[in-house]
Amino acid sequence: MGSANRLKHTPAGKPAHAEFVVIGAGLAGAATAWQLATAGHDVAILERGVPADRAGSSHGSARIFRYGYANRTYAEMVREARNWWDELERTAGQTLITPSGAVDFGELRELDTLARVLDAIEIDHEVLDAGQAQERFPGIQFDGPVLWHAAAGVIDSEVAVSAMVRLAVASGARILTHWPVDSVQQRSTGYLVHGPRGSFSASNVIVAAGGWLPSLLPKLDLPARVVGAFPKLTVTQEQAFHFPYQNPSDVWPALIEKSHMMRSYGLPGGRDSGYRGLKLAEQFGGKPIGSGERQDGIVDPVKRDRLVEYVKRRLPGLIPEPYAGSTCLFTMTPTEDFILDRHDRMTVLSPCSSHGAKFAPLIGHLAANAATASTASVARESIPVEFLVMPVGA
Q1: What are the CA-CA distances from residue 84 to residues 92, 179, 213, 266 (Å)?
Q2: How far is Cα 58 from Cα 78, in angstroms, rounded to an integer?
Q3: Against a cut of 0.90, is the pTM above it?
Q4: Are 327 and 55 in contact (CB under 8 A)?
């Protein structure tokens, strides 16, 4: 993508300009840029590192795609997101979601509610007793009912980001890497985006800064009442470990357990694990760090030991000795919902809260619609209220 870093010619001393500047090239930013560029808009993407690098929330080859939500609105949006993933795969000529199916279990997982929602949105599923589930998935030790749905899969997040950026660039977008943003200043004609490498002029700005949003938010030149309306964002540095399969020929589903013993998730690790292990993590087990620039990338041995013991108890089909560990950022709202709203000509989105990856191409569609709407109120009307934390532009 070397040629994509070029700037359009501007008179000497003036910053480069774009109709839409997207800050951040993770899943959300890349998806928004793809949608805007393919609709014919002039787009520039400013990325603090490189798209989907390890410092952000969109790196690696393993994110769960699943329909298992107790909230019907989210489940319906997964169904819609699947259509956008299909479109992205067709356009990019790449497989981005590998089928795996998923099992949900644990006394806190609300399986009856999940099953009712899946019935309502017509997603095939089965509720198995512990014995039936054990027979089907011998690598997992079950002690209660299990919900299985075959339509779940594993998203290759890094490849998806690359595909969306590539398609955006093919439609005329520019991608500027190693271009961190320090602040955004509103002007009568739009915005001036400032960073250590200079300034960039924009008619419209889309902020998709992920774990860097908490520190960037006060520097966006938004009214105090708008900034004050934002929910508290908590950024944590989470820990994930890869455990090898006892039998490499076994087929593993994605799994989510929510019980008094553990809140965990696991999924086939794909390229990240050399296709020979399960990626496993404790949900919300990471330490708060405030914002992305404060991460240290250190793998916590205490978290490692907790998951080793969990594997010994619950996952006999894995060798209880991880061969790799990594960190990842979670950016959470108090309700685990997303932020997607607009004030004036600035759209702010934080579709994270630990479960946003599966919605990426749909998020891009919604964000592009919001950014191009004639008014902020029109933009909000096109988005289900449950999908928003609050109306920032109100």
Answers
A1: 12, 29, 26, 24
A2: 18
A3: yes
A4: no
